[in-house]
Amino acid sequence: MGAGVSTTATENDDGGTFSLSSETSLDDIPENCISSMMMNFDPQEICSLARVNKTFHRASSANFVWESKLPQNYKFLLNKVLGEQNLGSMTKKEIYAKLCQPNFFDGGTKEVWLDRSSGQVCMFISSKSFKITGIDDRRYWNYIPTEESRFKSVAYLQQMWWVEVIGELEFEFPKGNYSVFFKLQLGKPSKRLGRRVCNLDQVHGWDIKPVRFQLSTSDGQRSLSQCYLRGSREWAYYHVGDFAIDKPNGPTNINFSLAQIDCTHTKGGLCIDGVVICPKEFTQGLKQF
After folding, report:
1. Which of 68, 188, 196, 231 has the most CB atoms within 10 Å of its CB?
2. CB-CB neighbours of 61 under 10 Å
3. pTM of the model
4. What is the 3-state secondary structure (H, E, C) of the chain?
Protein backbone atom coordinates (compact mmCIF):
# COMPACT_ATOMS: atom_id res chain seq x y z
CA MET A 1 0.00 0.00 0.00
CA GLY A 2 1.40 3.40 -0.87
CA ALA A 3 3.72 1.99 -3.59
CA GLY A 4 4.24 4.10 -6.72
CA VAL A 5 2.66 3.27 -10.06
CA SER A 6 5.12 3.07 -12.96
CA THR A 7 4.58 5.24 -16.03
CA THR A 8 3.94 3.74 -19.46
CA ALA A 9 5.12 5.05 -22.83
CA THR A 10 3.07 5.10 -26.07
CA GLU A 11 4.21 5.80 -29.66
CA ASN A 12 2.48 8.74 -31.37
CA ASP A 13 1.70 9.22 -35.10
CA ASP A 14 5.10 10.83 -35.72
CA GLY A 15 6.99 7.86 -34.33
CA GLY A 16 7.79 9.65 -31.07
CA THR A 17 6.77 8.60 -27.60
CA PHE A 18 4.93 10.34 -24.80
CA SER A 19 4.05 9.46 -21.21
CA LEU A 20 0.45 8.57 -20.35
CA SER A 21 0.90 9.34 -16.65
CA SER A 22 3.47 10.31 -14.11
CA GLU A 23 4.23 8.19 -11.04
CA THR A 24 1.41 8.34 -8.45
CA SER A 25 0.90 7.07 -4.90
CA LEU A 26 -1.68 7.08 -2.13
CA ASP A 27 -0.16 10.38 -0.96
CA ASP A 28 -1.65 12.00 -4.07
CA ILE A 29 -5.25 11.31 -3.03
CA PRO A 30 -6.83 14.53 -1.68
CA GLU A 31 -7.25 14.51 2.10
CA ASN A 32 -10.93 15.46 1.95
CA CYS A 33 -11.61 12.44 -0.28
CA ILE A 34 -9.87 10.15 2.20
CA SER A 35 -11.78 11.74 5.10
CA SER A 36 -15.09 11.25 3.30
CA MET A 37 -14.21 7.61 2.71
CA MET A 38 -13.32 7.13 6.39
CA MET A 39 -16.83 8.13 7.46
CA ASN A 40 -17.93 4.68 6.24
CA PHE A 41 -15.62 2.87 8.69
CA ASP A 42 -15.92 2.30 12.42
CA PRO A 43 -13.57 4.16 14.83
CA GLN A 44 -11.09 1.30 15.22
CA GLU A 45 -10.80 0.90 11.45
CA ILE A 46 -10.21 4.64 11.09
CA CYS A 47 -7.34 4.45 13.58
CA SER A 48 -5.83 1.57 11.59
CA LEU A 49 -6.09 3.50 8.32
CA ALA A 50 -4.39 6.48 9.97
CA ARG A 51 -1.18 4.42 10.04
CA VAL A 52 -1.02 4.04 6.24
CA ASN A 53 0.86 7.30 5.67
CA LYS A 54 0.94 10.96 6.69
CA THR A 55 -1.90 11.93 4.36
CA PHE A 56 -4.18 9.27 5.81
CA HIS A 57 -3.12 10.31 9.32
CA ARG A 58 -4.11 13.94 8.71
CA ALA A 59 -7.33 12.89 6.97
CA SER A 60 -8.27 10.67 9.92
CA SER A 61 -8.33 13.67 12.26
CA ALA A 62 -10.95 15.66 10.34
CA ASN A 63 -13.68 16.99 12.62
CA PHE A 64 -16.52 15.85 10.37
CA VAL A 65 -15.20 12.26 10.46
CA TRP A 66 -15.37 12.01 14.25
CA GLU A 67 -18.53 14.05 14.60
CA SER A 68 -20.25 11.36 12.54
CA LYS A 69 -19.13 8.78 15.14
CA LEU A 70 -20.24 10.73 18.20
CA PRO A 71 -23.70 9.99 19.66
CA GLN A 72 -26.44 12.57 19.24
CA ASN A 73 -26.22 13.49 22.90
CA TYR A 74 -22.45 14.06 23.04
CA LYS A 75 -22.82 17.70 24.14
CA PHE A 76 -25.04 16.58 27.02
CA LEU A 77 -22.44 13.95 27.95
CA LEU A 78 -19.63 16.49 27.91
CA ASN A 79 -21.59 18.80 30.17
CA LYS A 80 -22.19 15.90 32.60
CA VAL A 81 -18.54 14.85 32.55
CA LEU A 82 -16.69 18.15 32.27
CA GLY A 83 -19.28 20.62 33.52
CA GLU A 84 -18.73 24.19 32.40
CA GLN A 85 -15.14 23.72 31.22
CA ASN A 86 -14.20 25.38 27.95
CA LEU A 87 -14.38 22.78 25.19
CA GLY A 88 -13.62 25.13 22.31
CA SER A 89 -10.05 23.89 21.96
CA MET A 90 -11.00 20.19 21.77
CA THR A 91 -11.24 18.52 18.38
CA LYS A 92 -14.05 16.03 17.72
CA LYS A 93 -11.46 13.24 17.79
CA GLU A 94 -10.30 14.37 21.25
CA ILE A 95 -13.92 14.53 22.42
CA TYR A 96 -14.53 10.97 21.19
CA ALA A 97 -11.40 9.75 22.98
CA LYS A 98 -12.41 11.53 26.18
CA LEU A 99 -15.92 10.05 26.18
CA CYS A 100 -14.55 6.53 25.59
CA GLN A 101 -12.76 6.73 28.94
CA PRO A 102 -14.50 5.89 32.24
CA ASN A 103 -16.19 9.18 33.19
CA PHE A 104 -17.68 9.61 36.65
CA PHE A 105 -20.35 12.16 37.56
CA ASP A 106 -22.95 12.92 40.23
CA GLY A 107 -20.39 12.84 43.01
CA GLY A 108 -18.68 9.74 41.64
CA THR A 109 -21.80 7.56 41.99
CA LYS A 110 -22.38 7.12 38.25
CA GLU A 111 -20.09 6.27 35.36
CA VAL A 112 -20.70 6.75 31.64
CA TRP A 113 -18.58 5.91 28.61
CA LEU A 114 -18.80 5.24 24.90
CA ASP A 115 -18.14 1.82 23.44
CA ARG A 116 -14.94 2.35 21.41
CA SER A 117 -16.12 0.32 18.41
CA SER A 118 -19.65 1.64 18.00
CA GLY A 119 -19.80 4.95 19.89
CA GLN A 120 -22.87 3.76 21.81
CA VAL A 121 -23.55 4.92 25.37
CA CYS A 122 -23.03 2.59 28.35
CA MET A 123 -23.58 3.39 32.02
CA PHE A 124 -22.95 1.92 35.45
CA ILE A 125 -24.72 3.24 38.56
CA SER A 126 -23.23 2.63 42.01
CA SER A 127 -25.23 1.14 44.88
CA LYS A 128 -24.38 4.33 46.80
CA SER A 129 -26.85 6.27 44.66
CA PHE A 130 -29.78 3.96 45.55
CA LYS A 131 -32.43 4.35 48.22
CA ILE A 132 -32.01 1.18 50.28
CA THR A 133 -34.35 0.42 53.17
CA GLY A 134 -32.32 0.25 56.40
CA ILE A 135 -29.03 1.29 54.78
CA ASP A 136 -28.13 3.53 57.74
CA ASP A 137 -28.51 0.72 60.28
CA ARG A 138 -25.32 -1.34 60.50
CA ARG A 139 -27.25 -4.26 61.95
CA TYR A 140 -28.62 -4.76 58.44
CA TRP A 141 -26.43 -3.17 55.79
CA ASN A 142 -22.80 -2.12 55.33
CA TYR A 143 -20.74 -0.72 52.50
CA ILE A 144 -17.69 -2.95 52.16
CA PRO A 145 -14.55 -2.07 50.17
CA THR A 146 -13.62 -4.31 47.25
CA GLU A 147 -11.49 -4.04 44.12
CA GLU A 148 -14.17 -6.03 42.29
CA SER A 149 -16.34 -2.94 41.90
CA ARG A 150 -15.78 -0.01 39.57
CA PHE A 151 -16.69 2.16 42.54
CA LYS A 152 -14.40 0.30 44.98
CA SER A 153 -17.25 -0.60 47.34
CA VAL A 154 -20.53 -2.55 47.35
CA ALA A 155 -23.61 -2.61 49.57
CA TYR A 156 -23.75 -5.78 51.68
CA LEU A 157 -26.88 -7.09 53.41
CA GLN A 158 -26.24 -9.09 56.57
CA GLN A 159 -29.85 -9.92 57.46
CA MET A 160 -33.24 -8.25 57.09
CA TRP A 161 -36.94 -9.02 56.76
CA TRP A 162 -37.83 -6.27 54.26
CA VAL A 163 -35.44 -5.79 51.33
CA GLU A 164 -36.15 -2.90 48.96
CA VAL A 165 -33.68 -1.11 46.70
CA ILE A 166 -34.83 1.81 44.53
CA GLY A 167 -32.87 3.75 41.92
CA GLU A 168 -33.70 6.79 39.83
CA LEU A 169 -31.90 8.37 36.89
CA GLU A 170 -32.58 11.39 34.72
CA PHE A 171 -30.45 11.17 31.61
CA GLU A 172 -30.47 12.04 27.93
CA PHE A 173 -29.92 8.87 25.90
CA PRO A 174 -29.41 8.79 22.13
CA LYS A 175 -31.91 6.90 20.00
CA GLY A 176 -31.80 3.15 20.54
CA ASN A 177 -32.93 0.17 22.61
CA TYR A 178 -31.47 -0.30 26.09
CA SER A 179 -31.42 -3.01 28.76
CA VAL A 180 -31.17 -2.57 32.54
CA PHE A 181 -29.49 -5.12 34.85
CA PHE A 182 -28.77 -5.35 38.56
CA LYS A 183 -25.28 -6.70 39.28
CA LEU A 184 -25.60 -8.92 42.38
CA GLN A 185 -23.70 -11.61 44.26
CA LEU A 186 -24.64 -14.02 47.02
CA GLY A 187 -21.75 -14.08 49.47
CA LYS A 188 -19.33 -11.56 50.95
CA PRO A 189 -16.16 -11.09 48.85
CA SER A 190 -12.74 -10.57 50.41
CA LYS A 191 -9.11 -11.53 49.97
CA ARG A 192 -7.09 -13.98 52.02
CA LEU A 193 -3.37 -14.41 51.43
CA GLY A 194 -3.80 -12.58 48.13
CA ARG A 195 -6.53 -14.93 46.89
CA ARG A 196 -10.19 -14.16 46.34
CA VAL A 197 -12.57 -15.77 48.83
CA CYS A 198 -16.32 -15.45 49.28
CA ASN A 199 -17.93 -15.97 52.68
CA LEU A 200 -21.33 -17.67 52.43
CA ASP A 201 -22.11 -17.83 56.17
CA GLN A 202 -24.89 -15.22 56.00
CA VAL A 203 -26.48 -16.30 52.70
CA HIS A 204 -30.06 -17.43 53.31
CA GLY A 205 -33.69 -16.82 52.39
CA TRP A 206 -33.37 -16.23 48.66
CA ASP A 207 -34.61 -19.68 47.67
CA ILE A 208 -37.95 -19.28 49.50
CA LYS A 209 -39.55 -16.47 47.49
CA PRO A 210 -38.46 -14.73 44.25
CA VAL A 211 -37.13 -11.19 44.01
CA ARG A 212 -39.28 -8.70 42.09
CA PHE A 213 -37.67 -6.32 39.59
CA GLN A 214 -39.44 -3.25 38.19
CA LEU A 215 -38.60 -0.64 35.57
CA SER A 216 -40.53 2.45 34.46
CA THR A 217 -39.76 5.53 32.37
CA SER A 218 -41.23 9.02 32.24
CA ASP A 219 -42.73 8.33 28.80
CA GLY A 220 -44.83 5.42 30.07
CA GLN A 221 -42.70 2.35 29.42
CA ARG A 222 -42.96 -0.30 32.14
CA SER A 223 -41.52 -3.70 32.92
CA LEU A 224 -42.09 -6.17 35.77
CA SER A 225 -40.34 -9.49 36.32
CA GLN A 226 -39.31 -11.78 39.13
CA CYS A 227 -36.83 -14.58 39.71
CA TYR A 228 -35.02 -16.43 42.47
CA LEU A 229 -31.47 -15.36 43.30
CA ARG A 230 -29.39 -18.45 42.71
CA GLY A 231 -25.75 -19.40 42.71
CA SER A 232 -23.07 -17.90 44.90
CA ARG A 233 -19.49 -16.65 44.95
CA GLU A 234 -19.77 -15.05 41.51
CA TRP A 235 -21.31 -11.82 40.25
CA ALA A 236 -24.51 -12.29 38.25
CA TYR A 237 -26.61 -9.93 36.13
CA TYR A 238 -30.37 -9.92 36.72
CA HIS A 239 -32.48 -8.44 33.95
CA VAL A 240 -34.76 -5.66 35.17
CA GLY A 241 -36.26 -4.68 31.84
CA ASP A 242 -35.78 -2.85 28.53
CA PHE A 243 -36.69 0.60 27.27
CA ALA A 244 -36.52 2.36 23.92
CA ILE A 245 -35.58 5.90 22.98
CA ASP A 246 -37.35 6.66 19.70
CA LYS A 247 -37.26 10.45 19.54
CA PRO A 248 -34.48 11.86 21.71
CA ASN A 249 -35.57 15.35 22.62
CA GLY A 250 -34.32 15.73 26.17
CA PRO A 251 -33.69 13.79 29.38
CA THR A 252 -35.72 10.68 30.20
CA ASN A 253 -36.51 9.80 33.82
CA ILE A 254 -35.88 6.13 34.60
CA ASN A 255 -36.92 4.33 37.80
CA PHE A 256 -35.84 0.80 38.69
CA SER A 257 -36.12 -1.36 41.78
CA LEU A 258 -35.37 -4.68 43.46
CA ALA A 259 -37.62 -5.96 46.24
CA GLN A 260 -38.25 -9.01 48.40
CA ILE A 261 -40.71 -7.80 51.02
CA ASP A 262 -42.25 -11.06 52.22
CA CYS A 263 -41.79 -10.69 55.97
CA THR A 264 -42.38 -14.37 56.75
CA HIS A 265 -38.62 -14.97 56.59
CA THR A 266 -35.33 -13.09 56.74
CA LYS A 267 -32.88 -12.71 53.88
CA GLY A 268 -29.13 -12.11 54.02
CA GLY A 269 -25.69 -12.44 52.46
CA LEU A 270 -26.44 -10.28 49.40
CA CYS A 271 -23.95 -7.92 47.71
CA ILE A 272 -25.20 -5.14 45.42
CA ASP A 273 -22.59 -3.60 43.14
CA GLY A 274 -24.94 -1.47 41.06
CA VAL A 275 -27.01 -1.26 37.89
CA VAL A 276 -25.85 -1.53 34.29
CA ILE A 277 -27.62 0.30 31.46
CA CYS A 278 -26.34 -0.65 28.03
CA PRO A 279 -27.50 -1.07 24.41
CA LYS A 280 -29.70 -4.16 24.15
CA GLU A 281 -27.33 -5.89 21.73
CA PHE A 282 -24.52 -5.72 24.33
CA THR A 283 -26.24 -8.06 26.77
CA GLN A 284 -24.19 -11.07 25.63
CA GLY A 285 -21.00 -9.39 26.84
CA LEU A 286 -22.08 -8.19 30.27
CA LYS A 287 -18.93 -9.44 32.00
CA GLN A 288 -17.11 -6.38 30.68
CA PHE A 289 -19.12 -4.35 33.20
Report:
1. 188
2. 17
3. 0.86
4. CCCCECCCEEECCCCCEEECCCCECHHHCCHHHHHHHHCCCCHHHHHHHCCCCHHHHHHCCCHHHHHCCCCCCHHHHHHHHHCCCCCCCCCHHHHHHHHCCCEEECCCCEEEEECCCCCCEEEEEEHHHCEECCCCCCCCEEEEECCCCCCCEEEEECCECCEEEEEEEEECCCCEEEEEEEEEEECEEEEECCEEEEECCCCECCCCCCEEEEEEECCCCEEEEEECCCCCCCCEEEEEEEEEECCCCCCEEEEEEEEECCCCCCEECEEEEEEEEEEHHHHHHHHHC
Q: Which domain holds residue 57?
A: 9-67
39 within domain boundaries: yes
In a domain, 103, yes or no: no
Beta-carbon contacts of 86 under 8 Å, excluding residues fewer than 6 positions away, are: none
Q: How many CA atoms lie within 13 A of 283 on its CB side?
A: 15
Taking only the tens place, the pLDDT of each residue in 242-285 is 999 998 778 999 999 999 999 999 999 999 999 999 999 998 77
